Amino acid sequence: VSLVINYDLPTNRENYIHRIGRGGRFGRKGVAINFITEDEKRSLRDIEQLYNTQIEEMPINVADLI
């Protein structure tokens, strides 16, 4: 799987990693896109802190990432 799209965030952080872990396996490029509401921004920041990573806003040239 080269692209994972989350139309809603999972209810817990472990499920988020399980979902996006489907992309980019076996040395291949993988991209995860999250559609979030204003209310979900805090949950996404919590995921970033827990896994010590940064989830960036989707750039305009998203087609170049896939």
Number of strands: 2
Cα Rg: 12 Å
The string of secondary-structure elements, in order, is EHEH
Distance between the termini: 11 Å
Please specify the SSE layout and strand pairing.
Elements: E1 3-6, H1 13-20, E2 31-34, H2 41-51
What does this structure look like?
One of its GO terms (molecular function) is hydrolase activity. The chain is α+β, with helices and mostly antiparallel strands and 66 residues long. It has a two-stranded parallel ribbon. The chain has two helices and two strands. Helix content is 29%, strand content 12%.
Could you write a compact summary of the structure shown?
By secondary structure, the chain is an alpha+beta fold. It is 29% helix and 12% strand. It has a two-stranded parallel ribbon.
Main attributes of the structure:
globular, nucleotide-binding, ATP-binding, two-stranded parallel ribbon, protein biosynthesis, helicase, alpha+beta, hydrolase activity, 2 helices, 66 residues
